[in-house]
């Protein structure tokens, strides 16, 4: 089996995650979809690492995880504080940017 | 001696300033101040004239440089005066006739509350007119030109409470603007062509300049002359200008201002001599106006408008003569001077008649007045004989010479021009006899209550038609009015003869205008005889129509030509249809274009941008997920682009 | 396991196809499940599968980190927040933005096709394998890189994490501005208001269902709103069994009558016996 299939899988997962971001309204689920996309990227990085025969790809994936962790912490904190004030976790309710 | 020249202009200018700024304190003395300053100016003119006669013909011109007015680089306009024989003639005419009319006005305007202001305007006119004829360059001439236009406007509309007078003043001003544009364009052309405005250098340089440029300048000058001198096609204002007080009509619209065009053409004689096409145009304008004015004068029942038509016609003679070149300049000016005498006298006579007839102007309401106003009758009659060219009187000499000069043009043109001038003489005899007969002879039509005429339905107040008509009591005017009339009548009788003794006038003007004897295909005697014949025909015809038969108090409907002539040969209708309607249509078209094209383009762009923005605004839903869709779309485009670039 | 070849073995292929399908199904469930909890669990499953893939690709350290940090910590954090926030448990999947779903589907499809086409286009023939790189041990190799080549980025991520922690605290922490009221003060306030002096009634008074989501019944058989937690009421998770109770009661009465042989002629009784359910709640509701 060619390891390129891992890349196809990563692309598929990334697309599913992107579609989820567009479709779902619950901010938490949207967040999960973003995590899914990040993970798809990580899979691709790991595959590329194997392809090139060095560990740089894995390092990038590692950093991605750290950044994702930090992002989740802050993002969830934002969701919680928004929920406290607006009693809703729907991204459509936060449409204050519209005139 | 030359320092006196400025005094000529200064005296009436001071008078105007005094009278117009002095306020009501000067009300009681205003007319005396005005008249005194006019006479003073005349006295200075006489002194200068005496001095001029003392020098020999070559050294008669005087120059006075007052100050440099607009010195800007090569552009140089000075306030400087030039007093040569031509200017001298005008100075004497203007100040002389002007002084007489000032004195006459003391009586004529006696009952007018605004007499001081009237004299202020008259003085202003004198100053401007003198500036016009004394200027040594075209720019200063233009100042005087506009000055007389202003004075004319103010005096035509002097009785501004009458809407007709206010309208007539506006009309005169507007029509004159057209001519003034011509003069200003001519001055600009002169500057670009010669680099100077002074008469001397400009006229000296005409030899070295291309004929096309000179023709253009000449045509522009002709346009200016047409405006100021009421020549076709800018003639329409003169008839209405009779709304002003009669002394104004006599001074400005008969003797002096309207002749400014002739002065301009004569002064620019060297320029016209070098541009034969422009000269032809001048001649054509003069010939057409000559007949035009005469025909209009035949049909008018208003005594002043009949005289206005006559003025137009006589100035046509002068313009015709001026267009003939060196053959005619001197005769144009000579006719101008004699015409100044007799036409001013006629207008003053008409004013005197009106004065005694409750300001009635309709000649059909006159009749048999010779018994009641003998002095007026005699002076008017002498003026009449002078204008029709009765042998021995002024008009005979000057007009006869013009007709001769017209024939002397030679060829077909000469015959046409000469014939026109002869025909004009016949018509002149006819309409002047008509005026004379209707005013001073026949039955006394003013004794009966007037019936409303179809042409003037609202002219008479309703009260008079109800049988409460009080007939006027014709009476002779006071001395202060009759004396100027007598003086002018004397001038009308003797001026022409005096000028013609040994060709004195021609010799006098020759250094300025140059003179050449034309070769007339018909001898002078034949011309004189023909003139006499047409004179008799004209007078006889008028006598047949107005002397033998009683004149109806109400104007008959008349022939088509008569009706057209009563409407000033449809000149106002022509102007209305061509200029007013055309202008309105043009404006409407432009407004439509502005609305549809310019505004359409601007508003269309704005609307397109607005509509586009409205559509684009929909993209900004405010929903995060919509933006996410757009982001993904953008990412997809980027990926696609990358792939395509790699693929290529 | 140590000698990772450039080309995958057939065993890895089998593993890929099985777990790959699991991963895709998990991802699809993540975006299609109605409840956030289900989505989170599906995502956790996908992540575990990915962890296995990392291991299979020679990223041993990352695989473990994926399980411990991602699946263990981050996903559990998600679950906590879902519990904390997800009052409206059923996230309606009905689309409110016009055309959004079609756009999303179309764009997702197009984007996926583009990505896959790109991968297919790329010349990915050569696979070096991680044999050399992992020779000294995967963790040691990573450590050597992190603390030499990527040390600056590593320090930065440390700063980022600290910032994120402080940020999360700042965002969620609320300073108490007044003293907490004691039990005594609260009871006094309740009596002063006079609305509900006694404690709220307990749920689940019906014999067979004493769960917290079943409201207690009032004497006339209708459910009492006061007996269930407002959170459950908000979520719509209250199970109303009052109708069933009334129907049961009627059925009991009817059966006892039949047993006693008294109500044989009653038509309405027999009708009620066959379908007790639907009619009863209506009666209850009408009262």
UniProtKB/TrEMBL annotation, chain A:
Reactions catalysed according to its record: a quinone + NADH + 5 H(+)(in) = a quinol + NAD(+) + 4 H(+)(out)
Pfam families in the record: Oxidored_q2
Main location: membrane
Tree of life domain: Bacteria
Family: Belongs to the complex I subunit 4L family.
Function comment: NDH-1 shuttles electrons from NADH, via FMN and iron-sulfur (Fe-S) centers, to quinones in the respiratory chain. The immediate electron acceptor for the enzyme in this species is believed to be a menaquinone. Couples the redox reaction to proton translocation (for every two electrons transferred, four hydrogen ions are translocated across the cytoplasmic membrane), and thus conserves the redox energy in a proton gradient.
Subunit structure: NDH-1 is composed of 14 different subunits. Subunits NuoA, H, J, K, L, M, N constitute the membrane sector of the complex.
Protein name: NADH-quinone oxidoreductase subunit K
Organism in which the protein naturally occurs: Streptomyces noursei
Lineage: Bacteria, Bacillati, Actinomycetota, Actinomycetes, Kitasatosporales
Gene expressing this chain: nuoK2
